[in-house]
Design a protein that fits this description.
This protein starts with a helix and ends with a strand. Helices cover about 30% and strands about 15% of the residues. The strands form 3 sheets. A 5-stranded mixed sheet has the order 4-3-5-2-8, with helices on one face. Strands 1-9 form a two-stranded antiparallel ribbon. The chain is of the alpha/beta class and about 250 residues long. α4 packs across α6.
């Protein structure tokens, strides 16, 4: 074979090799970069609506105030007797509570949600199950927070039913902004001199706090206050289960 033909064959083989290496039939698989995303809709618990407890809608002052997000939860108790029947007594108890709060000038039931000893969750303030509605539950710290009330009295020595604690945790896990850690801290600014913090004062609080943390009161009772660490941990665990690659 002549030298120039050898060079030609060699060049053609090189081109064929390069063509095979750059053929588009099998693209290189690169690892995908995924990030964990919280899915709040998965966390939504069953919430009993206001019609079920016969809310006095005619007496509610119109014009709800909405917040941008929920940065903190304040836990309360209502100071009712604990021996109520969850099915028979609770609706009347909630209606009486709403009427009392309206008489105090709070426009509607102050708490966003109320939980009974059986673990049932009730929508308190109108619209709370749908939007981030500003309540009247924690003087000086209603903005960007929600109030959850445990129906009953949970002072020292009282037993707080586990179903009630889990229900409180489930509301917190669902309603807190996705960027907020239930186990973390939050900085809130007081809007009212009636709280423990003068108006304009910044307070660093647990994301899930008791009413007494910002107001001169024993609420939510020592037994329920002592259970707040369990509520925080349970809410965080619920969120972890609802977090996966988006």
């Amino acid at each position: 074979m002549r030298p120039h033909r050898v060079k030609l064959v060699s060049s053609l083989l090189s081109l064929a090799f390069l063509g095979a290496c750059s053929a588009p039939g099998h693209p290189v698989q690169r690892p995908r970069h995924t990030r964990a995303v919280l899915h709040p809709a998965v966390l939504r618990p069953v919430v009993v609506g206001r019609t079920a407890w016969h809310a006095d809608e005619q007496s509610v002052r119109k014009g709800l105030v909405y917040d941008h997000s929920v940065k903190a939860v304040f836990v309360h108790h209502t100071d009712n007797p604990n021996d109520y029947d969850c099915k028979k007594d609770v609706p009347a108890m909630l209606l009486a509570l709403e009427q009392q709060h309206i008489a105090l000038g709070w426009d509607d039931l102050g708490y966003n949600f109320v939980v009974d000893r059986c673990g049932d969750i009730y929508e308190g303030r109108s619209g709370s199950a749908v939007r981030d509605v500003r309540g009247a539950h924690t003087e000086g710290f209603n903005t960007d927070t929600i109030g959850i009330a445990a129906l009953g009295n949970f002072g020292a020595g009282r037993k707080v039913p586990r179903a009630m604690l889990r229900a409180i945790a489930s509301i917190a896990a669902w309603k807190l902004d996705p960027s907020v850690d239930p186990l973390g801290k939050v900085r809130l600014v007081s809007t009212n001199d009636g709280s423990r913090y003068p108006k304009g004062t910044a307070a660093t609080l647990n994301v899930i706090s008791g009413h007494r943390d910002v107001y001169e009161t024993t609420c939510p009772g020592q037994a329920l206050y002592d259970a707040l660490p369990w509520i925080r941990e349970t809410a965080a665990a619920m969120r972890q289960k609802a977090t996966w690659a988006g």
